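The aim of this short unit is practical: by the end, you should be able to scan a pair of folded records and say something sensible about each. We start with the first protein, listed as its amino acid sequence and then its structure tokens.
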Amino acid sequence: MFILGCIAFILLIAAWGTILWQPRPMPAISSERPLLVGHRGVRKILPENTIPAFKLAFDSGLHGAEFDVLRSKDGKLVLHHDFVLPEGQVIAELSYQEILALDERIPLLEELFELCKLYPKLLINLEIKSETFFSDGVEREVVKVVRASGLAEQVLISSFNPMSLLRVRLLAPELRTALLFYETLPRHLRHGSLARWLHVDAIHPHIEQVDAEIVNRAKARGLMINTWTVNDPNEVKRVKALGIDAIMADDPEALKQAAR
């Protein structure tokens, strides 16, 4: 029985990384390619990760937005890039009301979702900010809010933390996820084995990591490939020619002009 159990476990692990993994498309978003996505809204024009910045991005005709999510002490999902506020206060140690008292511009995830409902077929790229192996509950809260929003088919949950992505996959198999990486991730893990074991639907390499090889391998595996942060017009043209799926940038008008 022990041997049979071991064999079954090995087969299950093998299946998890092969036949049980199939990246899924996102038919609920715009079919145009490349998608032009506002990085934290329009951070070159308005304060990043704020509702006015996202509204301007959408009004400018961008296909979506990328933003960062952290969990406050009282379990609220706030949009903020850094783990600390400019004065050094740790967001995870503050209630949302305490956060608002320090910066009233910081919104909740639910507020952004309400705005997104006014614009059809947006790509909603939610990045979970997490640096630890263990969870503070942010993934569970994200899953709950995404499901309640009615926008789940448009949401792509990304993270640099593989454990966050795995937790989302186990909590909500129906949601789409994306692996973020920079040069610190070994090349063979960027778009191959790690993506497979995490069951992600997309990869998000930094612009410096994007070349024909990584794009072609992602396409061959059915992975969506989106890059950040592309503010150089020549780089926009380069990755567009490679067949990238989405380009994230800080200035919507400059991005649109370069993409044309």
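Turning to the second protein, read its sequence before its tokens, just as you did above.
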Amino acid sequence: MSDPIPFRTLAPWLLATFGRPVHRIALDAGSSCPNRDGTKGRGGCIYCDVEGSGTGALREGKDLVEQLNRGLRRIARRGPNVGAIAYFQSYSNTYVEPQRLEAVLSVLEPHLASGGGPLVALAVATRPDTLSSEALEILARWNLKLPTWIELGLEVADDELLTRINRLHTVQDFTDCAARVRSAGLSVIGHAILGLPGDGREGARRTAQVLAESAVEGVKVHHLMVLKRTQLAQAWKQGEVQVLEPETYVQWLADFVERLGPTQVLHRITGDSPAEDLLAPHWSLGKNAVREMLAAELRARGTQQGSHAAPHGANQSRR
């Protein structure tokens, strides 16, 4: 029998939690962000394209009911008894009036697993500075009928870089928001990007430490990708931005995973993009290859997820 993989991955956790295979349905609710509409800034995060890291489906005229039904049909083709996660992905989905959030979530009602439907969980992507108490109360009520995850962007644990990449929130905003969400009984999935301009290997370690200290239940991490229709694209074309090679990324990723908490679930360890949208990097490796490289690197080091996690509650230095 092969050695167990030295980090926690999502698929086994989903199967153990829900007792069946589970897949996501990405949904676009037409939200925005405060660093796009002028409240805090303009243009959004420098790496984020005009679709807000989502599908752009609503802008293309597909309403939420149509998006959801199409996703459910796709998942149903995978076989019987397959569960679905409704994932509101694009932009900051709690950056709306409470009534709008209620209306958006109401499209899920006919499909809840408790009523015989396929939906087993709800995931809502947002920013740590756009989750109002009213929105959290709404999501806490939803958590009573459908396990609800808040996908919360940290990206990098450095306030100076958070300003330079135009996110325009702080590390403290993230840690405070994660604590509020967990206190309300919901799960937090923290997001991170390795290789952002000005954030090196030590930055990857620092970001993992913050995610571990925040005790988020899940983590999504990927390498920096330069997409068309982003602020980052021009800087890359001018030679001002370097992207990571797979071997370097796996080294940094191993450092990152070693510093997470041992029970945190890795929902993602690499990213991808449609070829027509991607400027760099162009890796020949798929997700499974990156996973195998990470496992091999950790085994070669004699470490595993959590091997270098800081003692709970320890203060970590950051700029």
